[in-house]
Amino acid sequence: MKKKNNHLSYAKWGYLFILPFFAAFFIFSLIPLVDTVRYSFYEYYRSGIKEVGPTFIGLENYAELLRSDMIGYAGNTLILWLIGFVPQIVIALLLANWFTDIRIKIRGMQVFKIIIYLPNLIMASAFAMLFFALFSTNGPINSILLSVGMVSEPIDFMGTAFGTRSLIGLMNFLMWFGNTTIMLMAAIMSISPDIFEACELDGCGSVKRFFYITLPLIRPILAYTLITSIIGGLQMFDVPQILTNGQGNPNRTSMTLIMFLNSHLKSRNYGMAGALSVYLFIVSGVLCFFVYRMTNGKDKTGTARAAKKAKGGSKA
């Protein structure tokens, strides 16, 4: 006589608990995404009180965008992202390496962590308004420079492309380097101390240890940081929008792709806005794919070879 299988399966409860997420994703993300792609193939806009379309026009919206200033705005977005991201990742790596080095006795480390993370808690709109007030021609920065005799007349920081782009890059750097530092610190602290001890016993210096041991072992977090930064850079909107009053001045050198998209949404040109959204989605996907492949290769022995290289370099 065979015994009955009294094993209970709890899999259905797992599906039940994740059902709300998929329902919300389907309603609020997937359907709008599909609808955006659909509208990108249609002529659909409003002219005054008259509504034109939706009329199917194929790829005409995509071609029209290529004939517009979109490429120039993409260049602006890239420049603004580089100005903010390059110092961000350099400073974050430097601080993360210092804070996690057990040989450096830093007192009050928790206080420093809180301080560098605080700008991330400030809303971007408040940050932009603060910088607008600080660096205006009648602001405190110009007042200080005039009072100490460094300049003879107020500097129009937001009257030049270099000044405006520098301010936007500085704001993005200050808002996000703390978050990046905390993530990189967590990645470095997850590395086994035995690896660093073996590296020191082999005579490897701090610089070689950083480049040949630390960096290869935190590649997944570096890839995540770079990918999220690329997505955030392509979606840059609030800081330049508020700082330049939505105009991208001077001469639209601070106009980003999302500001360009917002202008189409404001004029209710949904077809062009949908096509531009699809362009952004494709560019984000391609860039993230290349970053992931570059930072996460299939070579599983890369860390071991890096350690051998560091060992060999230290003995040379």
Automatic annotation (TrEMBL):
Residues 74-291 form the ABC transmembrane type-1 domain. Its main location: membrane. Pfam families: BPD_transp_1 (PF00528). Keywords: Cell membrane, Membrane, Transmembrane, Transmembrane helix, Transport. PROSITE patterns: ABC_TM1. It is found in: Cell membrane. The keyword Transcription does not apply. InterPro entries: ABC_transporter_permease (IPR051393), MetI-like (IPR000515), MetI-like_sf (IPR035906). It is a multi-pass membrane protein. The chain crosses the membrane at residues 12-34, 78-99, 111-135, 167-189, 210-231, 270-292. PANTHER family: ABC TRANSPORTER PERMEASE PROTEIN, INNER MEMBRANE ABC TRANSPORTER PERMEASE PROTEIN YCJO. Belongs to the binding-protein-dependent transport system permease family. This is Sugar ABC transporter permease. It comes from Allofournierella massiliensis.
